[in-house]
Input
Amino acid sequence: MSDTVVTWRTHAPGIWVVTMDRPPANALGLPILDGLHALCDAAEAAGDVKVVVIESALDGFFAAGADIKHMSTIDASSFLAYGDRMRSANDRLEAASFLSIAAVDGLALGGGLELAMACTMRVAGAAARLGLPEVKLGLIPGAGGTQRLPRLVGHGRALDIMLTARQVPADEAHAIGLVDRLTDGRAVDAALDLAAELAGSSLPAQLAVVRSVTAASELPLEQGMKLEAEQEQGLFEHGEAAEGIAAFVAKRRPDFA
Output
């Protein structure tokens, strides 16, 4: 439930489907941003959410970007507050206590792609097109785009995408690592299949993997190795490793929370 333009439902134990529905193009104005914050609040309060899949109810659009009409009516201080709200929604999603998958069909542009990049993984349909066209507005991708895109596709490819403002087709996006899985069918169906795979493993271990892999692009090797060792030790002492090891020895399926 929640805001009228961002709703969620339980698809299976531990898996929520989140739907954005703000015609005509899911512009990321305050209604969607507030809805995404409400989603994070609800999922964290529920305590049993392992994976959320974020989809669009609109044909041809995942999310077309920031709310330009809103931006045309505000002053500098309001623009700063709006940008902070968008950045904080993405940051909360990236750092959440659950995994997230963006199911991208159609256009994911500007803030829409920044939202998708804040998710743990991205699944795209064959007709998806992704881009960061902010330079055409005299702006830059300011909700994480200049930072997350190079970490996914590399420095040169990121500059190519942002400086040309071009739309990257789904097959190229998959080839360069901007999306993780490509499907000929509906992105949400493939994303739910992936969510089912993810939900069967230990969430604390998966979140530790995410933290460690993120550190690989941010820390020197020695510090990254130290963080990896700390994550591993923490899982053994306080995570679900005891159940995983016991299940392996007993040749049974582990009972992860």
